[in-house]
């Protein structure tokens, strides 16, 4: 008699690095979006010291909008790439 506990755990033996590499291969624009988000946050922290007369809240809003815009743009391009790969780049049978 088979139970749910008899399921082999070989599918769960994936390390974090190999899982990230597999996911990046499936959706290449997700890591690009994450890297862009991190770059914009780093740039915002660097510019925080030299913001001049700009209020802190305005500076943070601008950085949030920039980071979100980059991530949404990367997601959109990734979706278009995925659609292209699935519908147009496939050889027709």
From TrEMBL:
Keyword Transmembrane: yes
Membrane spanning stretches: 28-46, 67-84
Location(s) in or outside the cell: Mitochondrion membrane
GO cellular component assignments: mitochondrial membrane
Ranges for domain HIG1: 1-93
Main location: mitochondrion
Gene Ontology biological process: mitochondrial respirasome assembly; negative regulation of apoptotic process
Highest taxon in the source lineage: Eukaryota
Record-linked Pfam families: HIG_1_N
Keyword line: Membrane, Transmembrane, Transmembrane helix
Protein name: HIG1 hypoxia inducible domain family member 1A
């Amino acid at each position: 008699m088979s139970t749910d506990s008899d399921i082999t755990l070989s599918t769960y033996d994936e390390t974090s690095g190999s899982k990230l590499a597999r996911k990046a291969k499936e959706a290449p624009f997700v890591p690009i979006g994450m890297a862009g988000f991190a770059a914009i946050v780093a740039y915002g922290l660097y510019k925080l010291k030299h913001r001049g007369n700009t209020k802190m809240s305005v500076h943070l809003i601008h950085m949030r909008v920039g980071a979100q815009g980059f991530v949404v743009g990367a997601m959109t391009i990734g979706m278009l790439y995925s659609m292209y790969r699935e519908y147009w780049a496939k050889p027709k049978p």
